[in-house]
Design a protein that fits this description.
The chain has 9 helices and no strands. The protein is mainly α.
Length: about 180
């Protein structure tokens, strides 16, 4: 599976440009994490890119999100490790996060959402005005973006990363996307 085909499949199933932008941000974070851990950068990046491939098809139903995504990806002959990671990234599916890939996508998606939420509160909505300190302040504020799971972000500890290090790595990764 190559990135071009993954992007094509995502675009066939997702019309909402905010979801596409989020997917691109998660892809960038996953590629950066893969480089850090000396993992397969393309496999990890494609996982990030397609992790929400079923969102519109399931009509945002979080009880089945990810499960259908995994099914779609398997039907398209994506690597089974990608399909499993897509299923496991939704906590509602109660799947064990067995590989580093599974653990990474689980925390990368909410981190991408947190960074995007930080961008939205800057006067000119520019990522250039965001730094790690701002992300950490927003992360620590229980009233900021309450729908973003701090627990999932904090699970970066399963990758031996502090939240601050993860925020810094993620911000650098998404600078060209958001």
């Amino acid at each position: 599976m190559d990135r071009e085909r993954a992007m094509e499949e995502l675009n066939l199933r997702i019309e909402n440009q905010d979801i596409i932008l989020h997917s691109l941000a998660v892809e960038a974070i996953m590629r950066s994490l893969a480089r850090r851990f000396h993992e397969d950068v393309d496999l990890w990046g494609i996982t990030g890119l397609v992790h929400d491939i079923d969102l519109e098809r399931v009509n945002w139903n979080m009880n089945i999100h990810g499960m259908m995504g995994g099914d779609i990806l398997e039907a398209l002959d994506f690597d089974r490790t990608i399909a499993y990671a897509v299923r496991a990234h939704n906590p509602a599916n109660n799947l064990a996060r067995r590989r580093k890939l599974d653990k990474a996508i689980y925390c990368a998606s909410p981190m991408a959402k947190l960074i995007a939420a930080c961008v939205e509160i800057t006067p000119d909505k520019s990522i250039g005005n965001i730094d790690t300190e701002m992300i950490m302040k927003c992360y620590a504020d229980p009233n900021f973006a309450i729908d973003i799971s701090r627990e999932r972000i904090a699970s970066c500890s399963e990758l031996d990363l502090s939240v601050e290090d993860f925020a810094e790595l993620s911000l650098k990764a998404v600078r060209d996307v958001l």
